[in-house]
Amino acid sequence: MKRNGFTLVELLASLTILGILMAVTVPNVVGILNKNRETIYNEDARSMISIAKYKIAGNNNGVVKPALNQCVIMSLGYLDNGDYENPPNDGQYLREQSYVVVKKVAVRTGVYRYDFYARITEKLDNGSLFGIDFSSEANLEDGVNATTLSSINNVNVENSSLDKNYFKTKCGCDVITASYFKIDKKLDYE
User: Fold this and answer.
1) Which of 33, 36, 41, 40 is nearest to 121 (CA)?
2) C-alpha span between 6 and 72 (Å, rounded)
3) CA nearest 47: which of 101, 100, 125?
4) Are 75 and 134 within 8 A, CB to CB?
5) Cα–Cα–Cα angle for 148, 154, 155, nearest 5°?
6) Which of 25, 81, 115, 161 is the most buried (most CB within 10 A)?
7) Over pLDDT 90: what percentage of the chain?
8) CA angle 68, 70, 76 (to 5 degrees)
9) Which tens digits make up the pLDDT trace of 102-121?
10) CA 91, CA 35: separation in Å to the nearest integer?
């Protein structure tokens, strides 16, 4: 007599094995996808810093370089070269609330360097905010994790206002010398 199928025990054993494989692989795949999203935020923030470095180093691009212990803020709207159209969670990067802060610091007498800090904010379709909060370039290189951001009220460009104390607390800027939020809009704060 020929057997043309599987017994119930064979089917249950196969389903059990598949269930165990799913229980092991699904969390790993989800973890890999989440880590990939965090990496994209980190890479985008580092890319913004690279563009800001280029603009600070250039002599003919109209960017005012900060004085000692002062900052220049450049928004994503000013820095964007078209590479920031597809945020990792399919939301939208907030162009005026994602920015790079450039601070001039003394290394020793007569020797200076620029420190760079970045914040990148994505607004998801459900209204929540996600991205990288204010982080130094060194922290980004170490792989700072993306987090849920609680607010974007620290920089409110729609009202043309900056919270100077926020930047003084975060990076020690005494005065914000200039802000670049759009190529055609320069805001000076003295």
Assistant:
1) 41
2) 71
3) 100
4) no
5) 110
6) 115
7) 14
8) 130
9) 888 888 888 999 999 998 88
10) 17
